[in-house]
Each structure stands twice: as C-alpha cells, then as structure tokens.
Design a protein that fits this description.
This protein is mainly α. Helix content is about 60%, strand content about 0%. It binds fe (ii) ion (2 copies). One fe (ii) ion binds next to helix 10.
Length: about 350
C-alpha cells in the first residue's frame, strides 16, 4: 500500500508505459521513471503507467465519430461554458440525498454544508454564488462553510432545493460508471488532501476544497460526451473514461475562468498532472499565479502538493483517477516535503474508512 511513497515498484512496473489523454499530454509532464544518478535508490519520480490507450486503439467507427464530436465541443468549450444556460450536472443520488436532508425543516446549517461538501458540483455552485455580484462581500469566499454563512439559511435552502429539483441530472446509464467513479475520486481526494496538508503543515480546509474540485473539469467533459452520444449508441465505459480524462484539464480551465472558485483550487485544477517534485510545484505557482506574494505562494504550493500526493495515493487504494491506471512511485515529491513513511502510514491507514464514509451516499 505504501509503494507510492516508499519508492518500491509494483510488479506492473515492467509493463509497457503508455500515457493516454491530454492530462499527460498538455498539462501533465509525468513520464516513465528513470532514476537519476544523483537520486537515492529508493526515490524516483512519479510514473503513470497504462496498459492501453482506448482512444488510440478505437477501431469502432462509432467511437471514432464520438471522439471527433467531443473534440469539436471541447474546441468551443469556453463559449459553451460561458453561455447563460450552461449548468453543471450532478448525480441523481446526490440530488435525492439533498432532498432528504431538506425535508427536515429544522435541519441544522452544518448538516447542509456537510452534505454540500460531499459533492464537487454543489460545492462549486455555492462558492460561485457566494462570490457573485449579488452576494459578494469585500472578501472572497473560499470555503463552503463561509459561503453558507454569507448566503444565510433561507437562501441556502432555496438553492439546495432548486439544484435538487431543477438542476441538470446525469441520468444516462452509459455515463453512470464514469460519473460515479469521478464523484468517488473527488471525495476521496478531498479527504486525502486534507490529511496530507495536516502532515506537511499546510491548510487542511483549503486542501480539502482543492481536492474536491481538482478534477471538476471532468464534469463538463462528461456533459459534452453525453451531448455527443446518439440515443442508441453503445460505447465502452472505458472509452468514455478516456475521453473525459483526455479533455478534463482544458474543460476545467474554461470553467474556472467563468466561475468564482478559490485560487488554490484553480491552481490544483490546472496543474495537478504537471507536478512531480517540489520544484515543479513552485514552477506551477509562478506560471499560473505570477503575482502571488511569498506567503501566498507557499500556501498555494502546499495545497497543490497536498492534492497531488492525495491524487496519487488514491490509486493505491483503488480510487485511481482512471480505472486501470497505476501510479507506481511517488518517492520524489514525498521526500521533497519530508513526508516520512511513518506519518504516511498513519495517514494511509485511516484513509479507506474516511473515503468510504464520504462516498457512502453515492
Ligand atoms: Fe485529473
Ligand atoms: Fe484526480
């Protein structure tokens, strides 16, 4: 279980490494691990290994056609996401859970914010609204709890009800597996990033939110796939996974320029596949938020590192970003931030329970 931190390769390490998708192509720079002469034997860069690339291997003309249709939507995604009717879809189970919570007229506000924080789409909608011109105060809101306080109980209940009743719901059975996996992965990453932040001395709540939102670009990507699918078209779930993975960074960047999301979450959304070491994290902060002051720079870097380590750790717990994906070694970044094997063990041991609790409603 600790392979990702302790630099021990899994047996699959000899498999042919092949990356699929824009995550590793445009934004991500993860490559096959080769220990440098200076690096200690047990510390190696991140590796992403996949045994197949469903998009490259698509021999079915329908899948090739689908891939082209989705690419066209992605090429125009900034416009579509900025259009007034655009809505991020949520899962039927999440909408039902919210309705259940709201049925209790005396439902405490903490219970509502806890429920909202188990759903990346809901959390993003609340942050966007709390920072909007209508409700925005002098300071920017970066957590769901603060957003709920700013909006007030009445507004929160109305918003939850309207999302549950009128929001776009992902009902297509063909998308079910990918969507459920994405929601589980997002909740898992949030919980894990909060734990890593505690260990490395970062801000746990910022790391939680950034972890929850880091792959939210997959939601519009999923929506674009759904809109491109013809009614009776059958498509392999792994092909949908691969399409969503391929386009999620571009769609996430388009989304973040329209929505008022926290700056550290935006950094995590754009850069989580491009960080293999602490210096990569520094470089991403400079690149994405060049005007950041020294203290803010450190906070941003800590949040990004927490999310990246959490994202990689999830693969060893069965919550990989993409099914079949194996992150072999994560020794370099862990060593960079002095995340000792002992503290990592404590953190990883409690993780399955915490992730299980967070995903139990899905
Ligand atoms: Fe991702
Ligand atoms: Fe992820």
């Amino acid at each position: 279980m600790l392979n990702w931190l302790m630099g021990q390769k899994k047996p699959e390490a000899s498999a042919v490494a092949e990356s699929a998708g824009a995550a590793t192509e445009a934004e991500g720079s993860a490559e096959v691990a080769e220990a440098t002469p200076e690096a200690p034997q047990d510390v190696q860069p991140l590796s992403i290994r996949k045994t197949c690339n469903p998009i490259a291997e698509a021999s079915d003309p329908l899948e090739s056609q689908l891939s082209e249709l989705v690419q066209r939507r992605i090429d125009d995604c900034e416009k579509e996401i900025a259009s007034p009717g655009f809505d991020l879809p949520t899962l039927p189970a999440v909408a039902m859970r919210l309705m259940e919570v709201m049925q209790n007229v005396n439902c405490p506000i903490t219970k509502i914010s806890e429920t909202v924080m188990t759903d990346p789409v809901m959390a993003a909608k609340f942050l966007r609204m709390a920072n909007s011109a209508l409700y925005g105060g002098k300071s920017r809101i970066e957590s769901v709890q603060t957003a709920v306080v700013r909006l007030g109980l009445g507004t929160v209940k109305n918003v939850v009800m309207s999302i549950a009743l009128n929001g776009t719901i992902l009902k297509d059975k063909r998308m079910e597996q990918t969507a459920k996996h994405l929601w589980e992965h997002s909740i898992g990453c949030a919980v894990a990033a909060r734990e890593v932040a505690r260990i490395i001395g970062g801000n746990p709540e910022s790391a939680f939110m950034a972890g929850l939102l880091h792959d939210i670009g997959k939601v519009p990507a999923l929506l674009f796939v759904q809109k491109s699918l013809k009614p009776n078209m059958k498509v392999r779930p792994e092909f949908i996974d691969a399409l969503v993975e391929q386009h999620h960074i571009r769609a996430g960047i388009a989304l973040q320029s329209q929505w008022q999301l926290p700056v550290d979450a935006r950094l995590a959304m754009a850069a989580h596949h491009a960080v293999n070491s602490k210096s990569d994290a520094e470089a991403q902060v400079s690149l994405r938020i060049p005007q950041a002051e020294a203290e803010e720079r450190k906070n941003l870097r800590d949040v990004l590192i927490s999310v990246v380590l959490a994202d990689r750790a999830l693969a060893s717990l069965g919550y990989a970003e993409e099914p079949g994906e194996v992150y072999i070694v994560d020794g370099q970044l862990a060593a960079d931030v002095d995340l000792s094997p002992l503290s990592a063990m404590e953190y990883l041991q409690g993780l399955p329970d915490q992730v299980g609790k967070g995903t139990s409603m899905l």
